[in-house]
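pasting for the record
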Amino acid sequence: MGAIGLFTARSSTVIHEERAKTATSATISEFRRGRLESKDIQARRDRLRHWAKRKADSPTASDIWKTLQGKAHKFKNKPRVRREWRSLNDTMKHKVAKAFWTVKTLLTEEGRQIYGENFNNHDDMLVLHSCATTDPRCDQGHFGPQFMTFHRALLLKYERSLLAVDPEIEAMPYWNMAFDAVGGKYRDDLTKYIFTDLYFGSYRGTGPNYEVIDGLFKYWPVVEWTRERFGNLSYLAPDNKCIREEYFQGTVPSVCDQCCNISCDCDAVPGATYTRRLRAHDDCSDYVARWPEDPDSLGPIGGTYEIVYNEADFDTCVDVTKVQTWMQWQDCIEMSTFICSQRFQYVSGQPGFQHTFKQKILPEMRKRVLASKDPFFAQALSALEDVAEQASDAFTEVIQKLTKDICGDYMLYGYLRNETTFLGKLIVNTIPRFFHSQAHIKFGKDLLDVTTSPNEAAAFTGYHSDIDRNSMTWMMNAKMANPLMDPEYWLYPVNQVITPDELLKDQPAEGLGRGISGPFAIYDVLACSNDTSFSEYSVAESPWLPGTLLDNVVNSGYRFKNLFDCAGAKNLPPGITCDGGEQGYTHKEMLYWTAPERTEYTYDTLEHYYYDVGPAI
């Protein structure tokens, strides 16, 4: 197999050809509705045959692998190095914590007067995250190809703020979740376990409402949402559509301030007040809370309320013999199905859900069950079909029982193909436990609230940096295996066609996607199916959400700018800016600037590709 054809039928060169062609040959709706003219289909067939012929003259995949793999390869750029929290000495650990608190307590304008333009207030960045989850186009930061490009940009923004406060910290630390999981390296080490007074505080908050009142970030305040601070009267409003239109307005709790954490009747309290806090869930607490047994969560998935994840799970998703495209990586690190998400627990009881489920999901489930011949899922399908015509309460009861069965026993395994072929060899995959969403679910309370999960500042940034470390490691491995991955932007979705093979069909692919992240994601069907404001997107017909394709702006409701050092940037490729330009960074630009040979940051486990050090253990 030639280098161009290394990663299955998705020849990266063919995709490059299709990017240029798609803009002029067919609109998104034409792709979606199967209105390609026969001459266009034939032209695509001819190009595929042309590239198939060229493969024979290309270097073999094994030759390229042998040339580039190994620790001897060095890149010329010298990125800063993000290190694991437990590798920091005591002095550095407290310097980092102090920088976090400075970013939290100083408003952006105040901080910039002292520390410069890279400073941003923590809660301003939290609102940016909430803008992504509440975008009317559906979530612009999760459960799709956009997950890592969005979070990578957010982490960079946060890191630059910390470095503005104290450049001596070098970089923002990450948290290796596997070290603290069941059986993990530091699980029983009281000097290294992350959930102690030495680091993040107790795993179960010890305050009266499970607030975290110990650790480096104890009594971390959850601030009040006001229109003047975060709404259309805010200084953030002129540059950000999300703020002007107030996609997110915080949440007024059901318990008054006076009765929060004590037993009393708010109706009997004269002048009772209800503070609208920067949360998306009902909680009156002044401070960040953590409660694994949170009834709004999914219970003891994996048989425990503790984290269940290990280094082997991490390694599976960076293995290019198993994970060979951007979306395969996304499906590997994320839970496999929307029914195992917290939002499903809520959605499954809402009016209109039953109709959506019966019309769009049951038919697809039926096809998959018949194809898989899996007795467990055949029984589940039968149970659903038996109550599909009954009252909604009966249907919801069956759905939620199945959710507990599937999500508890199967540990929300990340999606991976059972078998792949790599370098001519059959690879049987090890299915990893899901990486992203697990800490959200296991923490409960504020980290469970995805919209405002950055309230758990150190855990959020550390956890998502570890996921980013996984992504950066996969990108490095993929580049070593196939140099075409970088110029093809890691096969990130570029249009509403899933693969070049789809272009050879008279009709585009239909139906719901394999995992929670799509294509044709079940998450989008249930969470966004009522939104009709974007004519270019039709739920369960278009593979990807608007705003999430390669050339789209990352989270355009609250854009990212000025994340990179542009002093030496010149001769940039078409469509690439260094500062984000007027519109803000696109997904393509985030991938371009964080490719191995250009990235301004890396991780201690990848440091040996840039510096003369041994690989981290």
